[in-house]
Amino acid sequence: MVCDLCYVFNEAPEAPQALNTYNSIVFSLSCSVSKMSLLWVGQIQLLRPALPRRQHRRRRIPPHHFAPASAYHWPTSENAVHTKTLEERFVISGGRELSGHVHISGSKNSALAILAGTLCCYGTSVIHRVPKISDVATMLSVLRSLGATVEVSDRGVRINTDGVCSVEPCSESMLKIRAGFFVIGPLLARFGEAVVSLPGGCNIGSRPVDLKGRVHARAENGRCLVGGKFHLDYPSVGATETLMIAASMAEGVTVLSNAAQEPEVADLAEFLNASGAKIEGGGTPAVVIHGRKWLHGPEFTVIPDRIEAGTYMMAAAITHSCISMSPIFPSHLLSLITKLSAAGCEIIQKEPHYLEVSAVSHVRGVDLRGVHIRTAPFPGFPTDLQPQFMTLLSTCSGPAFVEETVFEGRMSHVKELQKLGAHIQVCENSALVCGRGHLSLHGSRVHASDLRGGASLILAGLAAEGVTVIAGASHIDRGYENLEQKLQLVGANIRREPDS
Ligand SMILES: CC(=O)N[C@H]1[C@@H](OP(=O)(O)OP(=O)(O)OC[C@H]2O[C@@H](n3ccc(=O)[nH]c3=O)[C@H](O)[C@@H]2O)O[C@H](CO)[C@@H](O)[C@@H]1O
Ligand SMILES: C=C(OP(=O)(O)O)C(=O)O
User: Fold this and answer.
1) 374 vs 176, 265, 392, CA distance in Å?
2) Catalytic residue among 120, 121, 170, 202
3) For the ranges 17-26, 209-218, 403-412, 491-500, which has the lowest average pLDDT?
4) With contact defined as beta carbons under 8 Å apart, do 37 and 239 qualify?
5) Which atom from ligand 1 is nearest to the alpha carbon of 34?
6) Is 165 annotated in the active site?
7) Contacts of the segment 67-74: beta carbons below 8 A, 24+ positions apart
8) Cβ contacts of residue 414 below 8 Å, gap of 6+?
9) Which residues pair with 374 in a beta bridge?
10) How far apart are CA 342 and CA 27, in angstroms?
11) Which of 174, 452, 477 to mutate to test ligand 2, by most ligand atoms within 8 A of the CB atom?
12) Which one-letter DSSP state was computed for residue 312?
């Protein structure tokens, strides 16, 4: 792929680091972390002082295969995804046994990448099972800010990007979510140019593109992107997805090696293929992408959210209850299933997409066993389930180690769990959890400071005796659809209230 990247920094950056050479030169967007690069390719030019915004707006739109912008009705606030703006908190009266069924929503990480992918598609894309979470609402704002029309209804999210004519999405929305950055691929592929703010998302580590300022990316000489060979030093989900989207519309063939294998990457590849792309090996380390001139809007259903499902599986375990859930792809959750089974949970697959998790036999004084976990890229144990599993371990019997290898800052939930009575010692990216058994946690006031850390506090609240108040509901709303309603349906005493 050949493109120029012009970084626009607010502050003077260190020089970008060259990390790899294949057909093209690969630079890191990171100024500090050397693990890998987000694989932006080509010549990098640092622009200082920053160019005025307007100069980047609505520049030349290359002769293109997209239909001209036509009149569309913008979605009204009634059919837009509901977003909560006031800060709220959850109040849980814990220690109850749960039972019943949980309906699993569509995958957050899959939906976000697919929504960005619709920017490659001519005509209307209809996406089903898009979760009603605030990250999706933000991503839809990003698309609207570019000129896409978006309609949200019970029949799916309908997106038409034919009228997109801006290469600069709303930076306020971009700063809220990680996945906003994914639009850089399709914008480059479609317009040869993109001006995007560096992304937000969970504050769980350096996450190398977390710099202040904006990235101005340009295809070399305003030409199309050109395919090439890329080896990822680390199988980054975001880098794999960005490259896959961009390469779908690049000229020629792109080959990725050591690509991320997460199910959400495979789902994005399915979506792009359903749109007319030709991607072989999506969801494996070796991906071959044959670029197409244009893609068309397909009808597509997002996979169920394995992280949401995993969180409810642990809700069953930590409350020594039995909860069934569907739809769920058990093959996406094998590492968690193995660990929960080793801890003593019974996991029964009743139908291909229907699972029951039970820890009821442990109710009379028999605790679940502590088991060690080490997070790793898929198919390893997901980092997005580490905080929740740590809460569970604090209610098992005996000591257990938690090793976080994906993000170096994903331990912020520990001090909040300690307030609830958990015995955990942290040493760098590892934690020793001294499990003290069922009902060993007690209610308290805690604060969620990131999405999965927040989910871990919800689990703790369900297991704790007394009342737990969890402030920072907005972090949890980023990734869990109707959390309190789903938990109420299985018998939890949880409510949401304004945080005064
Ligand atoms: C929106 C979305 O899909 N988010 C998911 C995605 O995040 P995201 O795509 O940000 O995660 P990555 O796989 O890129 O990051 C994993 C690791 O690679 C490092 N890295 C990444 C890029 C880079 O250029 N240099 C570098 O060193 C990161 O600092 C981190 O330590 O995958 C993570 C890992 O499964 C999940 O926790 C997130 O929920
Ligand atoms: C880290 C997460 O999300 P994001 O990458 O969107 O911040 C997550 O879903 O746990």
Assistant:
1) 29, 21, 15
2) 202
3) 17-26
4) yes
5) 27
6) no
7) 67/122, 67/123, 67/162, 68/162, 69/147, 69/162, 69/163, 69/164, 69/165, 70/162, 70/163, 72/149, 72/160, 72/163, 73/149, 73/151, 74/144, 74/149, 74/150
8) 390, 422, 424, 426, 431
9) 403
10) 43
11) 452
12) H
The string of pLDDT tens digits covering residues 185-234 is 999 988 889 999 877 777 776 665 544 568 888 887 666 899 999 999 99
Using the predicted structure, report yes or no on whether residue 241 has a pLDDT greater than 90: yes
Cα–Cα distances (Å) from 365 to 65, 314, 397, 400, 437, in that order, read 67, 19, 11, 20, 9
The residues near 415 (Cβ < 8 Å, ≥ 6 apart) are none
- The edge-to-edge listing of strands for the beta sheet with 124-128 is 149-153, 156-160, 124-128, 299-301
- Tell me the pLDDT tens digit for each residue of 399-436: 999 999 999 889 999 999 999 999 999 999 999 999 99
* Mean pLDDT for the stretch of residues 49-59: 32
Helices 108-117 and 134-146: angle between axes, nearest 10 degrees: 10
Alpha-helical runs (H) found in 17-75: 53-56
Going by alpha carbons, the residue nearest to atom 8 of ligand 2 is 384
Q: Which ligand is nearest to the CA of 109?
A: 1
Length of the chain: 500
Q: Give the number of the ligand closest to the Cα of residue 209.
A: 1
Q: What ipTM does this complex have? A: 0.97
117: its two tokens? 């992918």
- pLDDT at residue 32 above 50? no
CA–CA gap between residue 265 and residue 463 (Å, rounded): 34
- pLDDT value, residue 208: 57
C-alpha span between 393 and 434 (Å, rounded)? 8
Cβ 477 under 6 angstroms from ligand 1: no
pTM of the model: 0.87
Q: Are 404 and 380 in contact (CB under 8 A)?
A: no
Tokens 């869990």 sit at which residue?
480
For 118, the token pair is: 């619709």
Helix or strand run (H / E) with residue 234 = none
